[in-house]
């Protein structure tokens, strides 16, 4: 059972200029809230992650993840623009600049990556791909079409 987002969570979201409707969309991709009253996306947060009389630690963490994702999306667009320019001009210095941007982006947002690529596709989708230490797959971590 999920509860409507309660007043303390609404106040914190308001401080971040995020409406409860937006927060619901960010967490669940729709207009139905499946999380707990404290604003956590887990419907069993109160009494599990923290007591009812304690502030929720999940909501601030979810908010900072959200901002990080937003920054990764926007910065990824800059990497991709440089990549497209390098393809267009064919100039080695443009390729170097694009690869340097990609490398910094990876270092900042995907520390677990062991390799990265701007030219590999995953299920026909283009963007920034990585392989990591944990499994044998190539992951599309920035999607050219979705960003
Ligand atoms: Zn929680
Ligand atoms: Zn909570």
Structural class: mainly alpha
Overall 3D geometry?
A: elongated
Whole-number count of domains: 2
Radius of gyration: 19 Å
C-alpha termini separation:
33 Å
Largest sheet data: 3 strands, antiparallel
Runs with pLDDT <50, length 5+? none
Strand content: 5-15%
Q: Helix and strand string, N-terminal first?
A: HHHHEEE
Query: Based on DSSP secondary structure assignment, what is the total number of beta strands?
Result: 3
Question: How large is the count of helical segments?
Answer: 4
What does this structure look like?
The structure is a single chain. This protein is elongated. It has helices at residues 7-15, 20-28, 58-89, 92-109, and strands spanning 113-117, 127-132, 139-143. Helix 3 (58-89) packs antiparallel against helix 4. 46% of the residues lie in helices and 11% in strands. It is mainly alpha-helical and 147 residues long. A hairpin with a 6-residue loop joins strand 2 (127-132) and strand 3. A 3-stranded antiparallel sheet has the order 1-2-3. The protein has 2 domains: 7-56, no CATH class; 67-143, no CATH class. The structure holds zinc ion (2 copies). One zinc ion binds next to loops. One zinc ion is lined by residues 36, 38, 40, 45-46, 49-50, 56, 58.
């Amino acid at each position: 059972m999920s509860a409507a987002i309660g007043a303390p969570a609404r106040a914190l979201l308001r401080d971040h200029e995020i409406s409860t409707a937006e927060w619901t969309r960010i967490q669940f991709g729709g207009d139905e809230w499946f999380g707990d009253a404290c604003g956590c996306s887990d419907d069993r947060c109160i009494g599990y992650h923290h007591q009812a009389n304690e502030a929720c630690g999940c909501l601030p963490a979810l908010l900072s993840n959200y901002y990080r994702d937003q920054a990764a999306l926007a910065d990824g667009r800059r990497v991709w623009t440089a990549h497209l320019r390098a393809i267009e001009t064919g100039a080695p210095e443009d390729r170097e600049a694009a690869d340097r941007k990609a490398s910094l982006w990876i270092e900042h947002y995907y520390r677990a990556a062991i390799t990265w690529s701007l030219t590999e596709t995953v299920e026909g989708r283009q963007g920034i791909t990585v392989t990591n230490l944990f499994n044998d797959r190539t992951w599309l971590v920035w999607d050219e079409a979705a960003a």
